[in-house]
Design goal:
Bound molecules: adenosine-5'-triphosphate, magnesium ion
Structural class: alpha/beta
CATH topology of the largest domain: Rossmann fold
CATH superfamily of the largest domain: P-loop containing nucleotide triphosphate hydrolases
CATH class of the largest domain: Alpha Beta
Order of helices and strands: EEEHEHEHHHEHEHEEHH
Length: 260
């Protein structure tokens, strides 16, 4: 039995997290708290340490130091429970090309005791037409949606989505936004990364901007927007009277967004 979790506790608590690869310090004293029921965005330039942080929280990587508490549990002592409670979509998901969509999800479903119906999840990510097609024959965006379906099929309490909408067409992107909103409306928690500031503004209750492995700004998108001084933005931005989350990002990290 998975022990019930305390709704009043933060869904995720990260303190003093550090992870280095040889001479690269990927995560450098990162602190974070995500509340239960929140949609929380991790934003930041390429190489800022977002994926490394998320993968430590997912129990896939071990930190050099610091602590991580997920749904009131710790990976060292509660890994079995945690695997049942988390939904994970990796930035670069590699699924078996030879399996069909249905077989892939049936396989993932078998890992969980309280799983969702495979057909329902396939419907949810709009892959019904491809249900019996092999993964190898799916388009990039369809594979991406299948990866999200794999994260959902275990009926998770906390969903980690690492760039879930990268490469999706505008309609698929909006469908995924809807799916995330529905998931949140059930009182569940989402932690996502994105390079699309409009997406973060729309979806996230709070965002953290990460740079060089630690959080450099934290708040609701509106709080961060209100705090930016438009007169200091590089041209042609100063002509604008109000800022956007993208302006906040550029002004804080001093770099431009990845080309996509
Ligand atoms: N397996 C690895 N071996 C060596 N260095 C790594 C490894 N994984 C990540 N890094 C380095 O750690 C830093 C943080 O990488 P990470 O993938 O966490 O960034 P990110 O914020 O997710 O970036 P992106 O927006 O491009 O996905 C980068 O400098 C990266 O080169
Ligand atoms: Mg990443």
């Amino acid at each position: 039995m998975v022990t019930p979790f305390d709704n009043s506790a933060p869904a995720l608590r990260v303190e003093g997290l550090r992870k280095a690869y040889d001479d690269v310090v990927a995560v450098d004293g990162l602190n974070l708290q995500v509340l239960t029921g929140e949609c929380f965005g991790l934003l930041g330039p390429n190489g800022a340490g977002k994926t490394t942080t998320i993968e430590i929280c997912e129990g896939l990587l071990t930190a050099d130091s610091g602590s991580v508490e997920v749904l009131g549990r710790h990976w060292e002592s509660d890994a079995r429970d945690l695997r049942e409670l988390l939904g994970i979509q990796l930035q670069d998901t590699q699924l078996s090309e030879k399996l069909t969509v249905d077989e892939t999800l049936t396989l993932f479903q078998s890992f969980y005791r309280d799983a969702r119906d495979v057909g329902e999840v396939i419907d949810h990510v709009d892959l019904s037409e491809k249900r019996y097609s092999r993964v190898g024959g799916l388009s990039g965006g369809q594979k991406q949606r299948l990866a999200v379906a794999c994260a959902l099929v275990g009926n998770p309490q906390l969903l980690f989505l690492d760039e879930p909408t990268t490469g999706l067409d505008p309609v698929s992107r909006r469908q995924l936004w809807e799916l995330i909103s529905q998931f949140q409306a059930e009182g569940r928690t989402i932690v996502l990364t994105t390079h699309y500031m409009e997406e973060a503004e729309r979806l996230c209750d709070r965002v953290a901007i990460v740079d060089h492995g630690h959080v450099i700004a934290l708040g609701t998108p509106q709080e961060l927007i209100d705090a930016v001084d438009v007169s200091h933005l590089p041209p042609p931005e100063p002509r604008k009277t109000s800022a956007t989350l993208e302006d906040v990002f550029v002004s804080l990290t001093g770099r431009t967004l990845r080309d996509e």
